[in-house]
Specification:
By secondary structure, this protein is of the alpha+beta class. A 14-stranded antiparallel barrel has the order 1-2-3-4-5-6-7-8-9-10-11-12-13-14. The protein is globular and about 65 Å long.
Length: 462
């Protein structure tokens, strides 16, 4: 029985295998090639479906329309060959498959004219421009990056002048640094750039020394710079310098700032001061100035001062000047300085000035004062002389007449003209204590002053 079933099962399996082989698809012949295609094949477009009301895209031109009708600029009478066909066009296999690849929607003749905006393509239909709402932050898109602006060093850069000596390079560096400081500080108050005002920044640097038999040798290193701040206000300027602290704050500086005279005792130590000043650009003869700042030291020592000046010419050759200064310093308290000058012009070469000054503070011994007579003499275009006689004292000092002196000061403009040589020589008779004798004390001094920035007209007081 078992031997009979085995041949029957083999026959059943063979017949079922033959049936399955007849229903399988025949494999494609690799040698067969599709017929040549000269134009892209598009799937058949059925009847249009109902669309909601609204804007509709313009219909595409038919495939058999000449190229001139689609775009006259791209007209070409030559027939497009299969080799020149767009590689992005749909192949016959894709067309026959009935399925469209989503990546090919914006390619070839199947693209959506509202999504593909190529002005050079004749099949493109432009979308109607919609005005942007400027108040809508989303419509404006992401913020644009701010264009690079010129920095302070670029604003104040000077043209290449070729070979420069050591002094010329030093002066050039001081000029650019002062100008850049003005541009940087002024940039805190706005976005405008005032090239002329920044380049008008000026200052001086002085190196020298003064010796006398009574006080010994006293070296001096001074600098001062006036920075313009046009964006804030043309009447506002910044000051930075290494000066005699008390002389600057109390407004007791004399006419020669390179080597200060010994007023009210010995020369004081110099300090670095920074501050802001207010003064009108044009002096009218009734002028008010205001300044605030701080001594750069620890602890910081702030100060403030206000002064009012009257200038009155009379009788053609005379000028009367009166200036009152009220000041305050944290370590010195309040004080006031009164200055009165009389000028007499003799000629283009001679001018006589009589200066009188009195200063009172909470720290001084009574009223400190001096009177000084100076004859200014011009010798040529580059040299000037000053002949001085001076008497000074203090009302509450044990010796009220503390010094009288005579001196000669020469200032010579060197080559280049921004270098000034100052020489002085004289003799004084100091006495500050009753135990001292009033003996003659000779004094000599020398200083070199470098002016940087443009030539300045000293209309504003420093």
């Amino acid at each position: 029985m078992g031997r009979t079933l085995v041949p029957v099962l083999i026959c059943i399996l063979a017949s079922s295998t033959a049936a399955l082989a007849q229903t399988a698809e025949q494999p494609a012949d690799p040698a067969a090639e599709p017929p040549p295609q000269t134009e892209p094949v598009q799937p058949e477009i059925g009847p249009p479906e109902d669309e909601p009301p609204g804007d509709k895209p313009e219909p595409l031109p038919p495939d058999d329309a000449p190229a001139e009708a689609a775009n006259p600029q791209n007209a070409n009478p030559a027939t497009v060959s299969p080799a020149d066909a767009n590689p992005t066009d749909v192949t016959p296999d894709d067309a026959n498959s009935g399925d469209v690849n989503s990546d090919d929607v914006d390619q070839g003749p199947l693209r959506d004219p509202l999504l593909q905006q190529d002005a050079g393509d004749p099949l493109t239909t432009e979308r109607e421009t919609v005005p942007e709402d400027k108040d809508d932050p989303l419509a404006a898109g992401p913020p644009k990056e701010k264009e690079d602006e010129a920095g302070p060093m670029e604003i104040c850069a000077q043209p290449d002048a070729g070979y420069l000596s050591v002094l010329q390079r030093v002066r050039r560096g001081l000029t650019v640094t002062a100008c850049a400081s003005s541009a940087w500080l002024d940039g805190l108050f706005g976005d405008q750039i005032y090239y002329d005002d920044y380049h008008a920044t000026h200052g001086t640097v002085t190196v020298g020394g003064l010796w006398s038999d009574y006080d010994g040798f006293d070296p001096r290193l001074r600098f001062r710079a006036r920075l313009q701040l046009p964006q804030w206000d043309e009447r506002i300027s910044a000051f930075a310098g290494r000066v005699g602290e008390d002389d600057y704050i109390s407004d007791t500086e004399n006419d020669f700032q390179a080597l200060p005279s010994r007023q009210f005792g010995t020369l004081e130590d110099e300090s670095v001061l920074v501050g802001l000043g207010y003064s009108k650009p044009d002096r009218t003869g009734n002028d008010f100035d205001l300044g605030v700042g701080v001594r750069v030291d620890w602890p910081l020592d702030p100060y403030a001062r206000a002064r009012y000046e009257i200038v009155r010419p009379f009788a053609e050759r005379y000028v009367f000047t009166a200036r009152e200064t009220v000041f305050w310093q944290n370590t010195e308290g309040f004080g006031t300085t009164t200055r009165i000058n009389f000028d007499r012009v003799f000629s283009d070469r001679y001018l006589l000035r009589w200066s009188n000054l009195g200063k009172y503070t909470e720290e001084t011994i009574g009223l400190e004062w001096y009177t000084q007579l100076t004859l200014f003499q011009s010798i040529g275009q580059r040299t000037g002389l000053a002949w001085q006689a001076q008497v000074e004292g203090a009302t509450d000092n044990e010796v009220q007449l503390t010094r009288h002196a005579v001196r000669l000061i020469m200032r010579r403009q060197l080559t280049p003209d921004w270098l000034i040589l100052e020489l002085r020589g004289g003799v004084g008779w100091p006495r500050r204590k009753l135990s001292e004798e009033r003996d003659a004390s000779p004094e000599i001094g020398i200083a070199v002053e470098m002016q940087f920035g443009p030539k300045r007209n000293r209309v504003r007081p420093d």
